């Protein structure tokens, strides 16, 4: 089981990369470049990572060590 801080950092990074690749997909698609779909696939992969991380955060009961 990963600790909460690494899970939170991974979720934040996935969110940033998801937004970045979504914007890249949109700009490549609207300007008419050929390989715009690669950015879409990468964005879907980071969306999957984001969903898995959020599911772990919600599902697991994280507690502080000073109980």
Characteristic key phrases:
mainly alpha; 2 helices; elongated
In this structure, how is the largest beta sheet organized?
none
The poorly predicted ranges are: none
Q: What is the number of strand segments?
A: 0
How many angstroms separate the termini?
19 Å
Question: How much of the polypeptide forms β-strand, as a percent range?
Answer: under 5%
Q: Domains counted in the coordinates: how many?
A: 1
* Share of helical residues: over 70%
What general outline do the C-alpha atoms trace? elongated
Question: What is the string of SSEs from the N terminus onward?
Answer: HH
Radius of gyration: 16 Å
User: What's the tally of helices?
Assistant: 2
Multimerization status? single chain
Give the structural class.
mainly alpha
Mean pLDDT: 84
Task: Report what the structure shows.
It is a single chain. The protein is an all-alpha fold. The protein is built from two helices and no strands. The radius of gyration is 16 Å and the shape is elongated.
Topology:
Layout: H1 4-31, H2 36-59
Question: What's the quick description here?
Answer:
With 67 residues, this protein is an all-alpha fold. The protein has helices at residues 4-31, 36-59.
């Amino acid at each position: 089981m990963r600790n909460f801080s690494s899970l939170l950092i991974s979720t934040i990074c996935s969110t940033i990369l998801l937004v970045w690749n979504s914007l890249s997909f949109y700009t490549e698609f609207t300007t008419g470049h050929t390989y715009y779909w690669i950015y879409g696939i990468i964005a879907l992969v980071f969306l999957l990572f984001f969903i898995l991380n959020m599911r772990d955060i919600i599902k697991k009961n994280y507690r502080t060590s000073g109980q």
